Amino acid sequence: MAAKSKWLALGLIMTLLLTLISACSSGNGEPKPTKEASSQPEPTSQPSEEPAKAEPVEITWWNFPSYQTLDGEVGKYEKEIIKAFNEKHPEIKVKLEMITFDGGPQKLNVAIATNSAPDVIYDAPGRIIDWGKKELLAPLDDMITSEVRGDISPALWKQSMVGDKTYMYPINTAPFMMAVNKTVFEKIGKLDLLPLDRPDRTWTFEEYKLALQAVKENAPDVIPSGFFAKSQAGDQGTRAYLANLGVSRFLNEDNSAVAINTDEAAAALDWIVQAQKDKLVVGGSSSLAAGDVNDLFLQGKLAFTINYSAVLKAQNVPNKKAEFEEVLLPFPTLDGSPPKLEPYLGGMAIFNNGNDAKIAAAKKLIDFIANDPEWGRKNLIQTGGLSARSSITGLYDDAEYEYAELARQFITDPPTIADGFAEIRTFWFPELQRALLGAVSGKEALDAFAAKANEAIGKAKAQS
């Protein structure tokens, strides 16, 4: 035991000596100070700093009535979006201004011309792509994930891009088509004249004419169908209507020239002119706008309206002045072949006003509106549209939305992506008006439109 204790004591002494030698050794021969003797705290490899506060920024958001109203108040839902957005981004002040489809386009043109464009807007490709071609917008590619890029069809991206740059963030979509007052046909006992028993609801021009005649003969207080040619709004309805009645296209496959000036489409336009006289189409259509015709439909005074979609169906709920059930139908075609439907596509764009902070803030707003786990789905439903993303379906428990999903198979490339489209559309309604007023034949009107539009396409291509 004594020997063991002796060796233990010796071991302790050696350990102490080694500790002292280690503690005293330093580069200058001086002992290192202990923590208590040091007057400065020891530095760490990663100094702790408070995260930099986000700088406050204000952006302006101009919005057409893209969402259904809350309590009948235009803009109230948008204010709810902003309130929820500010809970996550209190540093970004969003100034909302609601604009109308009638006066909004001109107001935007004036704002752009005077360098006072909004920072962000919810709109459609017809205007957005034109602004992109004029380099008025900020590209959005850096905010689009590979998941989102792969989840949206090439056809919709084609409407959102100029070259390899994305200028519109696609959010909601739906095929443009017709709508019919189903209740009228039930009351006159002619529901069998509508193609509702066919899963795809396709039908012919002749079947359509029979349905119009049945309304005229059995519901004299209801106008069978509508048409309009007063302003640019809703032009997609008239061009798709004529193109399908004449089994044609508005522009050719590569959007390099007008294709609707065929004999068949001209005959369809001549039929519309005569149908006004026969009281199968609303009279005075040359002086009616798309909104006027849809208002007649919502009042129960029109059996068919030619510019409708699942989006408009939802947004028109508070505007209905009569109780009736409306259902969606594709445009009839001359030979019953599958129709060609233009897609409605809604999305957001950012004007490049030369302020990087505002552009970054606007991207955060777009991302919140489109992709927030709670508000993304809520916002989509409030538009009344289908998702631009292929993986998001079944948003509504409604037969008409199920049909709208099915009708996406008929969507074709819209002419809105054509070079010079902003100018092309200005020639369309004046030529329709000349035909409707009897000044020229349908063929003369469409040929005159083609000559002007083709010149605009060529000029735009030369400048690009």
Automatic annotation (TrEMBL):
Pfam annotation, one family: SBP_bac_1
Region annotated Disordered, chain positions: 27-55
Keywords assigned: Cell membrane, Lipoprotein, Membrane, Palmitate, Signal
Signal peptide positions (record): 1-25
Biased composition regions of type Low complexity, renumbered to the chain: 36-49
Tree of life domain: Bacteria
Protein name as annotated: Sugar ABC transporter substrate-binding protein
